[in-house]
Amino acid sequence: MVTLQELAFGCVGATRERVAWAVQSVVGGTVTHVGDPTCYDPFTIQADDGRVWPVVADNSLTEVGPALRAEVVTPVLGWDDLPIFQSVVRAGRAAGGRQSPSAGLHVHVSHPALTPQALTRLAKLVWRYEDLIYAAFGVTAVRMARYCKPLDPAFLDRLRRRCPTTMEAFNACVFGTYQPQPQRYCPERYHVVNFASACLLRRTVEFRAYPSTVMHAGKIKAAIILSLALTARAITARAVASSKRGGPHLGAL
Questions:
Q1: What is the total count of domains within the chain?
Q2: How many Cβ atoms sit within 10 Å of the Cβ of residue 252?
């Protein structure tokens, strides 16, 4: 089973403390105001099952003051945890949280079989269907221009020409040249899918296309299922067509 390494969603209109207690009302446990680093001013919920749910400041939520900016970050979740996560979303909404036009749902997915070859197939799948993904989730032109840009054709071309079989070679395809210590907040992360995160220690793939529908538990589940389905398809497929509707043909990857 492909693993939900982390889910993150931002909301506004409720303090981080109030959102933290909303999460605690679902997962149980204790709430602690960590406060450090101060730029994130985090609260953490130590759930009854031992997992930790941070609630941190999100400076991209600029339409409200700093006290009313909250981002909920999950621990590692499995398929059976989806009802719990949906309940957390509903609890956040009941606590006064609301979606922000500048916020989005970030789905981090991991699996031991996400090899360079599988990552290449995933990039090709996303490239092929990204127009449909944007349309299905109503991604705005503003988000497409800044936070979840289309995949770079040069990245796809490097994958096609180099056919990476090692993570070092895949790293070089992502960044253009090999980066031994890539930065988490590098420019390459702000695409419909962040493949730069696969080059970091956590080795996850981050799906970033899902916009401010994050306070709707049903829509959030749809986004999660799509992320898992694309990843699972990339892992199990022998090959994926490179054609893009209305776009160029990149050849076999």
A1: 2
A2: 11
For the chain, what is the mean pLDDT? 88
- For residue 171, what is the enclosing H or E element? helix 167-175
Q: How far is CA 119 from CA 45, 92, 104, 165, 203, in A?
A: 33, 34, 23, 10, 11
Q: What is the pLDDT of residues 96-135, one digit of tens each?
A: 888 777 677 889 998 889 999 999 999 999 999 999 999 8
Domain check: are 126 and 227 in the same one?
yes
Token pair for 18 = 């109030």
Residue 175 included in any domain? yes
The verdict on 99 and 196 lying in the same domain is no
In the block, which residue shows the tokens 């409200």? Answer: 64
Q: Which domain does 220 fall in, by range?
A: 107-236
Q: Please state, in angstroms and rounded to a whole number, the distance separating the CA atoms of residues 111 and 122.
A: 13
Residue 79 maps to a domain:
yes
Residues 31 and 127 in one domain: no
CA distances (Å), 57 to each of 33, 65, 81, 161, in order?
A: 12, 11, 24, 41
Q: Which residue has the tokens 């032109």?
A: 141
The pair phi, psi for residue 246, each rounded to 5°, is 80, 5
Which secondary-structure segment (H or E) carries 175? helix 167-175
Q: Which residues pair with 84 in a beta bridge?
A: none
